[in-house]
């Protein structure tokens, strides 16, 4: 996690975040001055941002909307107050309605971003200035501290070439907090095909099988919001194990980029929310699944089943059976 320190100061009415990145200052600056790169990390996991306006000049404005897993939206506006490439920029950040008009009753904050070269790369210090203690406390209570930490945790993937970041590292599991897990896997193939492999039953049956010795006995896909899906598996031949299945509903579909579904094991009341996103770069696709569990105990129980190993076997089969042809 690149964030090394978060400090709130009620006397100075500031919140300061310090983060270190293993990338040169020009590369980090580029990530903050390109809306397409910003969209990959501005917003915590599960709330990716979309910038709909971008005027990167002093006095210019940027408008972005963070999109929650259940269709929630939160819009903000940056007004650029200062730009000193590649060392500093400053914005007035305000909550806004869908038209980009600042909302009454929600605190605005002046945010200063500074970038300094270090022997290891770049240190970024972000200082947010507030008009009152109430405004500072309001954004803390809204979860901005944790949101910033989690958003910054996504920037490493943006700063590196995608293959340098993920190739050969298999299925990676990151514990973000007690109830959120992020799973990433780079697959060698275009995003459109990877998306189809997740949502077309004829393709799903060819790779989403977990370890060898299992077969998919039922596959009903959900391709529109509100639809239900069902997947079932059973052991083949001498393979040990009991048949099982998962089912759920589609909460958000944004083909071929993102899909959010609920998931529960057949016959069990426990439900998770699975947020799938696909990002393509130079012919490779980074598959990211953000899973929200109801509690830490459920998270640990499910991870202990060897879920990640089963996913890795499936992803390897996906590359071998579908993407290599």
TrEMBL record:
Signal peptide: none
Entries under Gene3D superfamilies matching the protein: 3.30.530.20
Pfam families in alphabetical order: AHSA1
Domain Activator of Hsp90 ATPase homologue 1/2-like C-terminal: 22-159, 190-321
Protein family (similarity comment): Belongs to the AHA1 family.
Protein name: SRPBCC domain-containing protein
């Amino acid at each position: 996690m690149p964030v090394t320190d978060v400090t709130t100061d009620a006397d100075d009415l500031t919140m300061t975040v310090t983060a270190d990145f293993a990338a040169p200052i020009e590369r980090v600056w580029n990530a903050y001055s390109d809306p397409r790169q910003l969209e990959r990390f501005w917003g915590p996991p599960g709330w990716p941002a979309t910038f709909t306006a971008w005027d990167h000049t002093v006095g210019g404005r940027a408008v972005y909307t963070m999109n929650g897993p259940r269709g929630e939206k939160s819009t903000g506006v940056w007004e650029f107050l200062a730009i000193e490439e590649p060392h500093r920029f400053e914005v007035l950040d305000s909550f806004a309605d869908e038209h980009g008009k600042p909302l009454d009753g929600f605190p605005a904050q002046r945010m200063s971003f500074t970038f300094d070269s270090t022997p290891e790369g770049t240190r970024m210090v972000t200082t947010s200035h507030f008009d009152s203690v109430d405004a500072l406390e309001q954004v803390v209570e809204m979860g901005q501290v944790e949101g910033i930490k989690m958003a910054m945790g996504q920037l490493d993937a943006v700063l590196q070439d995608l293959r340098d970041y993920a190739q050969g590292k298999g299925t990676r599991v990151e514990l973000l907090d007690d109830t959120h897990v992020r799973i990433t896997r780079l697959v060698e193939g275009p995003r459109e095909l990877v998306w189809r492999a997740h949502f077309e039953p004829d393709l799903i049956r060819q790779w989403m099988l977990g370890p060898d010795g299992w077969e998919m006995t039922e596959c009903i896909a959900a391709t529109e919001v509100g639809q239900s899906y069902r997947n079932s598996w059973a052991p083949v031949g001498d393979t040990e194990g009991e048949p099982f299945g998962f089912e759920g509903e589609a909460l958000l579909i944004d083909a071929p980029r993102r899909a959010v579904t609920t998931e529960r094991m057949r016959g069990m009341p426990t439900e998770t929310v699975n947020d799938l996103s696909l990002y393509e770069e130079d012919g490779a696709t980074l598959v990211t699944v953000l899973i929200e569990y109801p509690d830490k105990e459920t998270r640990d129980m499910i991870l202990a089943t060897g879920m990640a190993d089963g996913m890795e076997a499936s992803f390897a089969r996906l590359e071998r059976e579908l993407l290599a042809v």
